[in-house]
Amino acid sequence: MDDEEDGVSVAAEGPTPLEMLLSGADARAVKDCVEALDAGPKQAIALAFYQGLSHSELARHLKQPLGTVKSWVRRGLERLRACLDELGVKR
Amino acid sequence: MNLHAPGRADALAAEYVLGTLRGRARSRFERLARSDPLLAEAVRQWEERLIPLAQELPSVAPPARVWQAIVKRTHGSTRGAREARRRPSLWTNLSLWRGLALAGLASAFVLAVALFTPAPERPEGTLVVVLAAQDAKPALVASADRTGRVLTVKALAPVELAGDRALELWALPDGGNPRSLGLVSASGVVRLALPRSADEALRNVPALAVSLEPSGGSPTGLPTGPVLYSGPVPRLY
Known about the structure:
The structure holds two protein chains of two kinds.
Chain A: H1 2-13, H2 17-21, H3 24-35, H4 39-51, H5 55-62, H6 66-90
Helix pairs in contact in A: 3-6, 4-6, 5-6
Chain B: H1 8-18, H2 23-35, H3 37-50, H4 65-75, H5 77-86, H6 89-92, H7 94-116, E1 126-132, E2 138-145, E3 150-155, E4 165-172, E5 179-184, E6 189-193, H8 198-201, E7 207-214, E8 227-232
Antiparallel strand pairs in B: 1-2, 2-3, 3-6, 4-5, 4-7, 7-8
């Protein structure tokens, strides 16, 4: 179908969606910074963000005390911010 | 809630955006953020930091026919085709393709994150669908254990809805009518019960979509309002 082919060619010729919407660096930076987190904080943040888990659900899921996952989340977010700020300065 | 301790406002904004700030603390925070520009700015900055998590990844382009199929399935083939002819710009709309591509990219990345995240209780993996608006902005993330019967749907950024309107989530099966999965929240997290395991319930379902409906959901069992968001259901091979 013509219409469909038009759409495909637009998508193929233009810059990638990422390049248009974000500076690619931002998205890469977030990914790199998340990957740089320790395993516990990384897992807690990923589950909270992608699965919508609460602190107590995280504690159950990860089989850790509530205080531990709360501190993983807090520490993970602090490190994420510090990491992004650092990359932001270099950019 | 003491916002004046150093770093406290920022920490709360972070957990608000992440979604771990819940219940009364969340409502109180929202109220404060409405009248406190610094707090609102902290929220905006954290949204900027975290939302790219739902966007970055290597290229996995969704099939160009996905949107066409959505229009057809949600409005009936005749009307869909007629509307498509009347509005050819839909098919050449750059932001549409950008949106579909981004949604595909986003779900692939989400999947990548889900895969590199050890999750001992989920040996089968997680199914994640990112639902994006036509302007390519991811709006909702639906996720489920492939073997589980709970679909968690999370709004990435709150959507303003009139009081008499609701968002309804639909499975768009290959060659069948849209099937309602339930109502989803415009601002928080909702868990929907699936009739079967996510893998089975979403087999032959290439995409999910969210339509705007009267409060209480569509009275007809089929979408009656506009499709606001849609996203491809990723397949694991």
